[in-house]
Every structure is written in C-alpha cells, then in structure tokens.
Task: structure prediction
Amino acid sequence: MEKGVIFDIKRYSIHDGPGIRDTVFLKGCPLRCWWCHNPESQAFEPVVIYKADRCIGCGACERVCPKGAIRLTQRGFVADPELCDNCGACVKACPAEARELIGQEVTTQWIMDEIEKDVLFFDESKGGVTFSGGEPLSQPKFLEELLMECKKKDIHTAIDTTGYAPTEVLMRIAPYVDLFLYDIKLMDEKKHEFYTGVSNQLILHNLHALSESGASIWVRVPVIPGVNDSQEELDAISSFVSTLGGVEHVNLLPYHGTAVHKYEQLGMSYLLKDLKNLTKEEVGKFSRIFEDKNLKVKIGG
Result:
C-alpha cells in the first residue's frame, strides 16, 4: 500500500462533481495562486496553524518548542517560520487547542476504509469520490493507487486539478478517472506566471491532451477581480475552451475572501487585500461571454 499526506476528507460534498461525494484533500501544490482558498494545502508536509482567538496566553507552546521558534507578539504566541519545523510539540502542549497540526500521513487502505463508509450515499445519488488538494497529481503514486482501488469497487472518481503535472503522469492515471475538474485561470502566460508562480503552457497542453483522449471534463474558471475578469481575458479563455472536445460545461467560480483568516492563522501574507465580491450582474455578464461561444455555464461548484 502506498502512503500519502492528506489534510482533510469532506463528506457529503455536492460541489465537487455529480451526486453526493467524499472529497479527499491531498497536501502539496506547485502553484502559489494569490487567491488560493486552501493555503494550508500548499506545503507538502503537515503545518501548524495558530488560532489567536482561542489562545489563553499560558505560554506552554513557547516553553516546549525545541527550536525556540515561538515568541509572544501583539498577535499572541507566534512561530517564526524560519525556525519552526512544524514538529507539532506546541500542538500537544496547548490546553486551549489554539494550535492545530494540519496534515497527516495515511495509507491507501486507510483512505479506502473511510470512503467505503459512504458507498450507500454514492450509489443512491450517483456520486463518488473527488481527489482535490493542493494538487493531487503532485502525489502521483498515491493518487494512482487510490484511483485503481476505487475502480475495483466501481466507485465514480473525479480529480480537481490545476493540470500542472508531467503529461505522462496525467495520461497514466486518466483511464481510472471518470471526470476531470480542470482549472483554467489565465490565458496570458506572463500574468499567469505572475499570479500563480508557474507558466500556463503545460496546463493548456495537458488540457488539450485530455480532450483528445476522450476524457470527460468540467472546466473551472475562478473569476478574480482585477486579475482575470476583463472582457479580453475571459474572451481568450472561452475561445480556447470552445475548441476542446469533452467539455461538459464551464463552472465560473466568483471570487470570495473567506479564506483570509487561514492566511492569518498560518502567518502568511494575503496578497489580494480589499477585493470586493462580484455582483450578480457582473457574474451574469461573464457567463454570457462563455454562452456566446456555445458553452454551457454553471455558476459556482
């Protein structure tokens, strides 16, 4: 059995593919999207989050830290990211549960045991399992074995992916995937690299390869004010997607800032400050850009 690192299993999900699903979140992502709503997923190893509102100021975390990384600041007992190695000693010592270790190493069998508890719901709703992240393709052997085990048990599988992975890895796991939830963020390569840290050329190439292979695809477009919400950028995305086979529909995912508190808990800077949520009128206008290309559009999920 392969081992991998996950940070959550969300049961009874209805936004990560058809029917009622379990969404398994794998840790680790090669992208650093400014709007990432799961910043705890970016590192490949477990990380400690600090919930300042729960801290009682006892200082137990500071006393037990073997690296001397924790110091009292205006925000409370904050860890120096240069010294902290996320060992978890402070988590065990905290009586108020103000610190939490996000991520755990598990086996394929452990995941399958959890998934199989919900098979009845999958069968009744035509649901299944979605592997998300992070970027699930960043743990290819672990992911492949999970997909193969699901196929043996006739469980519908989906992958929520950035598409940023070696093409050979993507095509190797494709026969075990019933549905790809595939993110397209920007067509402008320089802007894509600026806002995500990587080029989009491999991402676009891989999406085209999946389309050519006959895969079933839902394209997901996070719409971020000031980043990719211009007529020019959405025209470019919709034009590209309209040339692809296998795309069942496009999900437009309007920006929301609900993850800002996670950045604070992780001691990370949130680079998109003071953005306003999109209005229904704006989202409707964006939807029509894709519909004009004869693409079916869904808002959210």
About this structure: The longest strand covers residues 3-13. The CA atoms of residues 188 and 233 lie 8 Å apart.
